[in-house]
Task: structure prediction
Amino acid sequence: MNRYSTPQIALHWLTALLVLTNIALPYGHDFFGQFLGGDGGVFTLHKSIGLTVLALTLLRLVVRARHGAPQLLPPEDRFQQVAAKAGHALLYLLLLAMPLTGLLFGKRPVNLFWLVEIAPLPLSDDTRALAKQFHLTAQYVLYALILGHAAIALWHHYVRRDGVLRGMLPAARH
Ligand code: HEM
Ligand code: HEM
Result:
């Protein structure tokens, strides 16, 4: 059947897991701080996961350029085609913009998974403030996109009963 390639499926679900974890970390910093040695540890993990998402998204775009995307929606439904393309493009944009702005606004070095230090970028305070403003505001756009995206996927599966969600699930799952 029509589905994404295995690397694309693996990258999609790994990214989804990492993004949701990364949203939970700052909001649940009191809770997670108990296991990570306080807020410093929580943000070390937040930044590390965020940069992992950036790397995985770049990789994913390369894989997508090679494998393309399967035709999961009816080809005659132009509106659905365009809406899905726009939604996915926006998701990709935020998967790049969230980690990039995070990287831009930090004044202190990033301690990548407690292993390697990445020095802060030499930027003006104004640029940092702008990047921070973006990071803190765009999170709400990201939430709306993720919720809408997941709701539409479930609607396809349970209401339309078509193969859209199965196209992003491993073959063994059905
Ligand atoms: C998938 C990537 C990322 C997502 C979805 C994300 C999301 C978020 C969210 C939801 C918050 C909490 C905002 C609030 O308290 O209102 C936050 C805060 C923060 N993020 Fe990220 N982030 C990502 C990547 C990064 C990266 C790569 C860095 C740095 C290298 C970073 C640095 C920070 C910092 C320092 C804060 C605290 C800001 C403050 O309140 O002072 N983030 N991020
Ligand atoms: C943080 C969470 C998520 C992010 C960032 C995300 C991101 C994306 C992106 C960028 C695509 C486009 C893939 C491409 O064509 O290259 C996609 C496709 C897809 N996602 Fe997600 N996703 C998330 C969660 C979910 C969830 C929870 C579901 C299911 C309930 C889901 C189901 C799907 C399906 C079925 C497709 C294929 C749609 C199609 O090609 O028409 N995603 N996702």
